Structure formats: C-alpha cells, structure tokens
Amino acid sequence: MSTTFENAATQSVDVNGTNFVYREIGKKGGIPLVLLHHLTAVLDDWDPRVVDGLAAKHHVIVFDNRGVGGSGGSTPKTVEEMARDAVAFIGALGFRKVDLMGFSLGGFVSQAIAQQQPGLVRKIILAGTGPAGGEGIANVGAVLQDAFGKAGAANKHPKHFLFFTQTSNGQTAADGFLQRLKERTKDLDAPVSNETIQAQIAAIHAWGQGDATKLGTVQHPVLVVNGDDDVMVPSLNSFELARRLPNAQLSIFPDAGHGGIFQHHAAFVQQALAFLQQ
Amino acid sequence: MSTTFENAATQSVDVNGTNFVYREIGKKGGIPLVLLHHLTAVLDDWDPRVVDGLAAKHHVIVFDNRGVGGSGGSTPKTVEEMARDAVAFIGALGFRKVDLMGFSLGGFVSQAIAQQQPGLVRKIILAGTGPAGGEGIANVGAVLQDAFGKAGAANKHPKHFLFFTQTSNGQTAADGFLQRLKERTKDLDAPVSNETIQAQIAAIHAWGQGDATKLGTVQHPVLVVNGDDDVMVPSLNSFELARRLPNAQLSIFPDAGHGGIFQHHAAFVQQALAFLQQ
Fold first, then answer.
1. Residues of chain A with C-beta less than 8 angstroms from the C-beta of B253
2. Residues 6 or more apart from A148 whose CB is under 8 A from it?
3. For chain A, which residues make up each domain, given as ranges?
C-alpha cells in the first residue's frame, strides 16, 4: 500500500530524553527531505498536496520541534536553539545528510541549521521566509493581532488574512488550502500551547532584529520561493535572501501571499522536484 | 525522422511583400511558441538546447524580424514597429493564437505585442528583459562598447562579457553556450548588418526612456526569468516586470547574467514547459 500524508502514522523518537513526534512518507534510502514548520503549526498544518507531491520522489519527514504539538519539552525563544533541536532530531533518526525545506519560521531555522551544521545539509528550500534582520519580520506580533481581529470580525480562519491575498483568487485558494488541511481526520496531532506560541514569537522577533551578514558563507544550493504579496514575511525578504545567498534560485508566484507554495502547489512541487534533482 | 534545431531547414514566408526567414521544429497542431530574438541575433543565435527542449512539447518557431539576418526590409527604430512586424509575420504563417518567448530586445517586442494584440497571445515568457523606462536599459550603447573593448583585449567573444558573469561558473557556461551555437554548420543564416544594429540600439534606447504604466493592463500569464547579475538589462528590471504585470511568475537563476536561461538551460526548459502546461 502506498502511504499518503493523510494516512501516514504519527511516530515518535527519543531525542536526548525528549519525545519528538514525526510522520514520514515516500521511498526510503535516498537523502531525506526534512520539513521545518511555521509559527503555530503542528504536523496537521502541512498541505497534503505539497507533502505528497514531494514524496513522489523523496523520503519526506515532517516533525514537531521541541515543545510543539505532540513533541515534549519547552520551545526555546531563539531560532538558533530551535536549529540545535532540529539537528538533534535529525541525528536521532540516524540521518547524516538531509535536504531541508523550511516554511516561514522554519525557513529561519533552516538557515541557522545550514550555518551550524553545513555538512549535514545538501540542498535547502526556503519558502515564505527571510534573512535575519529582514524588513518587517520583527512586526510579527502586530501582524498577527491585526489578522486575528479581521478573522474574528469576518468569521474566517486567520490564515485567510495571513497566508493569502485578499483578491478573489487568493481567498478561493485559502478555502481550498483549509479544506485540504481537514482531509486527515484520524491520529491528529495536539495543538500548540500558548506558551509555545509566545516563545516562537519571541524567537521571530529576535530574528527580525538579527544580522544576515554571515549568510554569504552558506554555499548550499537554495531555492527561495514566495508569493509576490506576503504580509507576514514581506516578499522583499525573498529577493534579499536570493541576493545574499551565493547559490540561490528565486521563484515568486503571482497574486499570492505567505502561503504561495500552497496556493500554487502544483507549480511549486514541480519546481521543487526539479531543484532537488538538478 | 525527428528534426532538431540543428538540422531544421531555413524557410521563408512572404509578409506583405517582404521575405521573412524562420525555422520551425516540434509537433504541429497545438498553440505554437514564437521566439523573439535579441539585439544582433539571427536564427543561429538561439541555444539549441533551449529550442530543442521547448520543442519536446511545443511547435516552436524561430524567426528573423524585418531587416534582420536573412529577412528582407529595413529594421525599424522602435519596439512598437518591431511588434507590428512580428504580428504580421505570425499572421502570414496563419496562426491565430500563439505563445511568445522574448529574450532581451525580444522581450520588449513581446510586451508590445501583448499590448497591441492581446487576443493573439496566450502566454508569455520574458527572459533577460525589462519594462519600458527600466533602470539601465537606455545605457545599452555604453555597455556594448565596454564589452567589445574587453572582448578585444581578452581575445574573447563579447558574449563572455555581456551574457555571463565573470565568475568561473559564468565563464565556463559562456564557453559551453558559444560551442553549442557552432553545432549547426550548414544552411546558416546571414549576419545582421551594421544598419540593423544601429536601428535596434535606437529602439532599445527609446524603450529605456519609455513608460511602463500600461503594463498593468497585460492580463496574460507571464513567466519572467533572468540571471541574478545581468549587466545588459539589470536584473532589478525582472523584479519590476513581475511587480507590474498582474499575472507574472518570477524566476531568478544564481551566479548568472543576461544569458541565465542559456547557462541554466535544463532548469529553464523544465520551468518553461511547466509554465506553458499549467
């Protein structure tokens, strides 16, 4: 039976005494692709079309970092500590070389992993993310507050405002994305705690005041991708990442926001597979 | 026998009394993809890997616009007139709907065609190009002069300086590209005349002083693509195109210049086929 992300079992692994939850799909044996999640996200927040699309050619690992969802421990307040936790998780699974795909906060963590453990990483996909000190990143608290306010008033999910443009295309894509996240109905992950969210926001805020000058030392092939109108990590940060990283390819989707890779999932999967295969 | 670009016959068609030369490969029947050439280019200046790659899925037409190479007539001094000539050529071949791929000057012409005859066009690929009035475009004369000077001093082809970065990767890619252009040895096109080059430079200069405000009315799906370090049409112009065009996807290749689609031909062909298929 070929497993899809919808029916992939939730597994767990001991990481230096803390239980981390994860799911894996796709053929084992090659270099695995490890996905690093966004603020507030748990295992159930990844678009099944993206995960299944990538798993057509890769062994894909989705996990909750320390203190997130079903994983134990307390979420640290810096991206650098999150990166060390992710490296420990990857080590606990026995992998010596991985590809990374980081979305938003997960993209910050991926950049930190590439700098802490360059030999562990082959290629990196950075989606909806930006460099340390990037424009607007430190405003995450205000952006969230605004979106939660609008979502409450409109009786919509905040991701309608945070991940997608307010155009007809964007809002239709939001509906489709949120429907896809509901396809899985069993063996669901635990939600994030408020304590975890506060720690993640603190980490994002600190990242937004950080310094990206060392990014020029990251030699890995990188695919930087985003929508052209991201309100969470403004799209300009994707240009900035591609400019600073010596071996980065940039892809920007039209009429799309932070969740551009979910809105344009078919085109994104095709691009990502081509990039990982090159 | 399956024809490749290397052995595609040079054909000609009467366009309102003027002979236009062209070559075509790929399966006929679908919407053809018409390629629009750069300053100084003739039929033999298209990378055979790009043309053959696109022709795997599309009926591809390569042609010399009025006054260029083997085509008759005098090259006009504006992009808008070049667009009218291209539309007349497309009509002479009997096509009612085409995809366009414009490289550099050909990208300017493609934008003008999309505005003059929106109904003629389905999708557009704009490579190594920029909007009217775009930064640095009007400097083409000085950039050419500088590159020809360096090429003479280094005993290299000017495209080493104009189309590729000066890094080791870029210069190796330049060698490979120039070798591929020599694969065809028979039935070669005529070179461009100095008069044609002067008219093309005048047209580029005028375009560089033009106004892109109407670009927001171009509703076609567009793939904008370039290297990250283009000295002929600075890469910032690709961002600007993607920003102004309402339905544009942007792709920027690393360590690559104006000829980024030739340097990264395999990745580009894959992206272009995916874009045309969507």
1. 249
2. A158
3. 5-277
Residue of A nearest to B240 (CA): A228
Are A218 and A83 in contact by the 8 Å Cβ rule? The answer is no
DSSP string across A155-202: TS-THHHHTS-SSHHHHHHHHHHHHHHTS--SSPPPPPPHHHHHHHHH
Among all residues of chain A, which has the CA nearest to that of B222? A254
In 3-state terms, what secondary structure has residue B120? Answer: helix
Q: Which chain A residues have a beta carbon less than 8 Å from that of B276? A: none
Side chain identity, residue B153: A
| Cα–Cα distance, B231 to A131 (Å, whole number) | 25
Question: Residue A121 is inside which H or E element, if any?
Answer: strand A121-127
- Give the chain B residue nearest A252 (alpha carbons): B250
A228·B250 Cβ contact <8 A:
yes
Mutation pick from A167, A270, A277 vs chain B, by most beta carbons of B within 10 Å, is A270
State the pLDDT at residue A161.
Answer: 96
Question: How much is the pTM?
Answer: 0.86
Helix/strand/coil for A9? coil
Q: Give the separation between CA A153 and CA A168, rounded to whole angstroms.
A: 19
Of A55, A79, A102, whose CA–CA distance to A269 is shortest? A55
Positions in chain A short of pLDDT 70: 1-2
Q: How many CB atoms lie within 10 A of CB B193?
A: 14
Widest CA span of chain B, in angstroms? 49
What digits encode the pLDDT tens for the residues B166-179?
999 999 999 999 99
Q: Tell me which residue in A246, A249, A270 faces B252 most closely, judged by beta carbons.
A: A249
B239 touches A: beta carbon within 8 Å: yes
In chain A, which residues have their Cβ closer than 8 Å to the Cβ of B278? 266-267
Q: Cβ A254–B275 below 8 Å, yes or no?
A: no
Superfamily of the domain at B5-277:
Alpha/Beta hydrolase fold, catalytic domain (3.40.50.1820)
B228 at A interface, C-beta within 8 A? yes
Residue written as token pair 């910032």: B236
Check CB contact under 8 Å for B249 and A253. Answer: yes
Segment B178-219, tens digit of pLDDT: 999 999 999 999 999 999 999 999 999 999 999 999 999 999
Tally Cβ neighbours within 10 Å of residue A13: 15
